[in-house]
Design a protein that fits this description.
The structure is a homodimer. Chain A has 2 domains: 234 residues, Aldehyde Dehydrogenase, Chain A, domain 1 (3-Layer(aba) Sandwich); 145 residues, Aldehyde Dehydrogenase, Chain A, domain 2, CATH 3.40.309. Chain A has 14 helices and 16 strands. In chain A, the strands form 4 sheets. Chain A has a 7-stranded parallel beta sheet, sandwiched between helices. A 4-stranded parallel beta sheet of chain A has the order 5-4-3-6, with helices on both faces. In chain A, 51% of the residues are buried. The model of chain A has no long low-confidence stretch (mean pLDDT 95). The interface between A and B is large, with 69 and 69 residues. Strand 16 of chain A pairs parallel with strand 13 of chain B, so a sheet runs across the interface.
Chain lengths: 419, 419
């Protein structure tokens, strides 16, 4: 079978499976997910053996320590996967919600109800647990999915996909509802991304270069998240008692997260002493500062930013850009230019300053007196998290499993025609 | 100025304008729209003169009669444009709606509110009125728009865009909120479609080939509507008293509409006589039938369908495909294969047959005992109509002006951090 035939088969299988999922009720779907969790626990030794194959190969591929860590499974990580699937099963059904309903003037009944999108291609990198997580999120929402993991995790992903498929088969469901691309061939991905006849949605999860490559090639709509260059602006009216712990939380608690603060904007009228206190507090907490000339003068450990393009940087690390500026308008201008439109926050007590910021910052989450780290599906109460979208269409910001649904209009009449 | 510089200027202008629209309230936006209507009425002679230039050129371009008709403006069409803009002004503001609101367990207040998408590229063909309609829909929803009409309507579109811009300038608003591409150069469109850094959305309006070309080239998300191959299935349990007028309405009332019936599926167990009556009624109403072998035997005027690919045809004309089949399951299979997923209807009295159809047909509108012609934003009560989407993401089916909005999450706290 050549690549084109392989892709044709994946595509025709996923369409057939999506069709069969339309009439499946949520009790059956949740039961399958719980069975997946049980099988994950039962088959832990087999999963670990498969993972050893990937890890052995990792050495020969020369993977970085961080990548090997992401690839590594152990009993506790497998137990977390199982719990995660059970949690997804426990969330409310996102399908069959009546989103609108009315009796039309002609007497017909019009409803708009949530339905599965249909077919999804999930592309991810080294973490094999996405095989289960992506599969579970799609199946929960009635979508059939093609999973494409990284080549370094192929053996681990393969056994995880098999486990998912055995739970499907036991329940009499087409196993093609969760298919894994079982070849590392990149041409297969390129061909799949052309198939907007068969695929409704692509979700890439991983680094910016993966996501850019998918967007570049895809004819299928993509929901994506490039990066989080999140800003906090400390206004002169900020309550500095709150500011300290909040800024530390935003930068230090988990610097590798996309919702961590990457740039701190400071109102000049806070005064030298307050600005110095803020910068020193960050330094004391292990943060390496990169700042404008003015900030370098106030705190000698700040490294000068030579090129303003550096303000685009997503450090994902204990490093932070700093800029001192003239107030909320300049802060909004800076954000407009450098933000990735993920999450921005203002620390200010003055109402009109808060409202100017909320109205004029065009990011998926805009906050007042809160840590950017709060931008999260779990914290927002969305249930199972699909990701955080920096797009504006379909879904924006933290996405619950509803982002994997669409809707259809249902009109029930008794002979109505167009006048 | 070369093409790249021209596109750079359009892109930077539209971004600047979008930003300035964020803080504009709906009273101001509606007032501008009403002023556009007044100016259209006042400047009718100038609009007609510009249109004459296009019509003179149309002869040399060798345009078809239908295209010349679409291009032609007269007093009544200009009056309709003005009324249309006033109607858009009269609809509720789609912005600043609180879509969700809750107090989080940490005490912060979380809201999801509707906001403009930002920047839109509207691409259309010969009808110059789309310059006003597209401009008004985008401006109503707080979006800045680049309008790109057909080359044959350039003079008419130019004066219409100028009128819109004078209303903007009078109100102190950046006229780049409604820009017209004033060159027929196709390279400009190609370059614009690469600019996903500056443009949030493309809406192509026109024939299938225009839309396919846009999708093929665009890195910017597209909301589109390829075609409407709408089906009606007449089950053996259908009320044939209702069926006759309904089928005539669906096919004959406006055959050029995308929601007109293109294929009629008939349950074999209706029996020869009922099937013959239905087919004859259509023929008596001027419909040319193209059908399966069985339908040809029952009604001699039916032309045989030689190749099943013909069932993909969107006639947009008084022609209709006909197929006789074994029941609702085969009907759903046929629809799955040949439908454009726009609108399908079943005529049936049996509840379980209706429900099977509703659950298993995956189209933007699915109807019971109603004419497909009802799939329309106005009929659905959506207010100003942006179009009908056959996509599944963001908006599906008839789209109101809300389809030109997105949302942002607003979190108001008093020092909350991530635990």
């Amino acid at each position: 079978m050549n690549q084109q035939q392989y892709v044709d088969q994946l595509a025709s299988n996923v369409q057939r499976a999506a069709r069969s999922l339309r009439s499946l009720n949520s009790a059956v779907r949740d039961q399958v997910l719980r069975r997946v969790a049980t099988l994950l626990r039962e088959k832990t030794p087999e999963i670990l053996s498969a993972n050893v194959l990937d890890l052995q190969q990792a050495a020969s591929l020369g993977l970085s320590k961080a990548m090997v860590d992401r690839l590594t499974l152990n009993e506790s990580r497998i137990a977390d996967m199982a719990t995660g699937v059970e949690e997804i099963a426990s969330f409310p059904d996102p399908l069959q919600h009546v989103l609108e309903s009315r009796t039309m003037s002609n007497g017909a009944q019009l409803e708009r109800i949530s339905t599965p999108i249909g077919t999804v291609l999930f592309i991810y990198e080294s973490r094999p647990n996405v095989t289960i997580d992506g599969g579970a999120l799609c199946f929960k929402s009635g979508n059939a999915v093609i999973l494409r993991g990284g080549k370094e995790s192929l053996a681990s992903s393969a056994i995880l996909a098999q486990i998912f498929q055995s739970a499907l088969v036991e329940a009499g469901i087409d196993p093609a509802a969760v298919q894994l691309v079982d070849t590392p061939d990149r041409e297969v991905v390129r061909l799949l991304l052309q198939r907007n006849d068969a695929l409704d949605l692509v979700i890439p999860r991983g680094g910016e270069s993966l996501i850019r490559a998918v967007v570049e090639q895809s004819k299928v709509p993509v929901i994506k998240h490039y990066k989080g260059v999140c800003h906090i602006f400390v206004d002169k009216t900020a309550d500095l008692q709150k500011a300290g712990p909040l800024l530390i939380n935003a930068k230090v608690q988990r610097p590798s997260a996309c919702n961590a603060m990457e740039t701190l904007l400071l109102h000049r009228e806070l005064g030298s002493e307050s600005i110095q206190n803020i910068l020193r507090l960050l330094v004391q907490n292990g943060v390496e500062l990169h700042g404008c000339e003015e900030s370098c003068r106030l705190e000698p450990s700040v490294r000068p930013i030579e090129n303003t393009d550096e303000y685009h940087t997503e450090y994902l690390d204990l490093r932070l850009s700093v800029k001192i500026l003239s107030g909320v308008q300049e802060a909004v201008d800076h954000i407009e230019k450098y933000s990735s439109k993920h999450t921005e926050s203002i620390l200010a007590e003055a109402k009109e300053v808060q409202e100017y910021f909320l109205a004029n910052v065009d990011s998926s989450s805009v906050m007042v007196n809160a840590s950017t780290r709060l931008a999260d599906g779990g914290v927002y109460g969305l249930g199972a998290e699909v990701g955080i979208s920096t797009d504006k269409l379909h879904a924006r910001g933290p996405m619950g499993v509803e982002s994997l649904t669409t809707y259809k209009w249902i009109l029930r009449g008794n002979g109505q025609v167009r006048k």
